[in-house]
Specification:
The chain has helices at residues 2-26, 34-37, 49-60, 64-72, 79-104, 110-118, 120-153, 163-181, 188-212, 237-242, 249-258, 268-295, 307-352, 359-382, 386-415, 421-440, 449-479. It has 480 residues and is an all-alpha fold. Helix 5 packs antiparallel against helix 12 (268-295), helix 13 (307-352) packs antiparallel against helix 14 and helix 14 (359-382) crosses helix 15 (386-415). The longest helix is centred in the last third of the chain and has 46 residues, at 307-352. The radius of gyration is 21 Å and the shape is globular. 53% of the residues are buried.
């Protein structure tokens, strides 16, 4: 328990201190934000700080900060330190800077920011890549909450031959369509406070359950830092496995979305940085809960799998409390999937320069996207290993998107004479992670571990050189 509590202290105290530092680096002021300047009643809609923060939290906190830590804690109690450190110095800074740079840039979405800071060639690659990721998020976050509803709420088998599964999928999909097409304050702004209350009740219940249900949490053993039962190396696998609880490229697309609703730049730290710290807290809770249930001797076949969610919830909180906790968890992916598709629509519209004030224009851009989501969902459900393959590529792609965001942030900060190392260093680290992972993984090139890591280090150094050189060039041009 001691290591877990130290990790929480790092997360809370470190988040407060480094959040203030990140704010000083960016230097928010009292200029008019896009939410005020560009009001259109659809996407540019001023909302309160608390509502924006709640929507941001629900947008970014999908199943990643739960399923990731459930698997990541297999590496041992070192996870209790790596999650908060990564969240404070990497994930929260990534989200804050992405959101604030978007606000300073007229509410541009990530593709526009990439184009402005990294150029047309990188923009072309990124734009295709990120829209594909958004569609994958939409499909994944119909699948996972749908199966949780069928298995844990309706108490039925979540198999493709059960028609109830497809009915549940259809209901979630219908909500996504509405959230994608209607003004942000008409659907998302109204239902999210309800979802947020359920989520917080769920998280608080699991947190206190750790202390009152006799869960045994291991402390860090420096003689054996990695306790993974299969001997899987911590680097780079841990950071891809835990993903959203530490750093997630998907978050940058959501921060820029909410950036169009923020009324004052001074609200940015609470809306963007602090909400990622809160997601880190959720990740810590589920890492601890997973370790506790593993130590109670559950069926080895369930270790690291989503079924652990139901076991923890019912064991800690009983039937009724467990159901509330599970509903809170179901809320997470649903409130990420809806805004993922909305973000994709905005990105496509921004790329094609198509106004989004009318329902007809929004619908015309969304039909193809909805068809793609449906096709991926059917494939994942009908193929025996479809979802596992989909999830692995999704997790890797998610971290890859973060690398683009860190590069954009670094160049922006360097061009404006700010402390760009705050984003360049975590960007280098994640270039190493995604490169070493895809080079060594079976779903990638399956190279020997040492070779994969050497390639990862080399590419990370090249990344830093290119970003630094481009930032310096833009800084000179800005002075001219």
């Amino acid at each position: 328990m001691t290591t877990f509590l130290i990790g929480l202290a790092i997360l809370i105290i470190g988040g407060f201190a480094y959040g203030r530092f990140a704010e000083k680096v960016f230097q928010p002021d009292d200029r008019e934000t896009p939410a005020i300047k560009n009001q259109d009643g659809v996407d540019y809609v001023p909302m309160s700080k608390k509502k924006n923060a709640l929507i941001e939290l629900l947008n970014i906190a999908g199943t990643g900060p739960i399923l990731g830590p459930i698997q990541g804690i297999l590496f041992g109690p070192l996870a209790f330190l790596m999650i908060p450190i990564g969240c404070v110095f990497g994930g929260a800074l990534h989200d804050y800077m992405s959101g604030m740079i978007s606000i300073r840039s007229g509410g541009e979405q990530m593709p526009g920011l990439i184009k402005r800071n990294l150029g047309n060639k990188v923009y072309s690659i990124y734009n295709i890549f990120v829209i594909i990721l958004m569609v994958l998020v939409g499909a994944v976050f119909i699948y996972t909450p749908g199966d949780l509803i069928v298995a844990n709420v309706l108490k039925q088998e979540a198999v493709a031959t059960n028609p109830v599964v497809w009915v549940v999928y259809a209901c979630i999909f219908a909500y996504y369509i509405a959230a994608t097409l209607f003004p942000i304050d008409k659907i998302i702004g109204r239902v999210y406070p309800i979802f947020g209350g359920i989520l917080l009740l769920s998280a608080v219940g699991i947190f206190f359950g750790l202390f009152f249900n006799g869960y045994q949490l291991n402390n860090l053993d420096f003689s054996n830092l990695n306790t993974h039962p299969k001997g899987t190396p911590i680097l780079p696998v841990f950071f891809v496995t835990v993903a959203c609880g530490i750093v997630s490229g998907f978050h940058s697309t959501q921060a820029t979305l909410i950036g169009r609703s923020v009324k004052s730049e001074s609200e940015g730290r609470f809306v963007f940085y602090d909400m990622m710290i809160l997601e880190g807290f959720i990740a810590m809770i589920w890492a601890a809960a997973a370790m506790g249930i593993y130590n109670k001797g559950i069926d080895a076949g369930l270790i690291g799998k989503p079924a652990v969610i139901g076991l923890v919830a019912n064991d800690m909180l009983g039937t009724v409390g467990g159901l509330i906790a599970i509903i809170g968890i179901i809320v997470l992916p649903i409130t990420s999937g809806d805004t993922a598709l909305r973000s994709a629509r905005l990105m496509i519209a921004e790329h094609l320069n198509i106004p989004q004030k009318t329902m007809k224009s929004r619908l015309s851009l969304s039909i193809g996207m909805f068809i793609c989501v449906l096709a991926i969902l059917i494939f994942a459900k009908l193929s025996p290993n479809g979802f596992n393959v989909l999830w692995q590529y999704f997790a890797w792609a998610n971290q890859t998107i973060a690398v683009f965001a860190f590069a954009m942030i670094s160049i922006y900060l360097q061009r404006h004479g700010r402390a760009f190392l705050v984003s360049l260093i975590p960007g280098m680290f994640y270039v190493y992670i995604i490169t070493a992972y895809i080079m060594g993984a079976k779903i990638g090139f399956n190279l020997p571990y040492m070779i994969a890591n050497i390639i990862g280090v080399i590419i990370a150094i090249l990344y830093a050189f290119v970003v630094y050189k481009e930032g310096g060039k833009q800084k000179v041009l800005a002075r001219a």
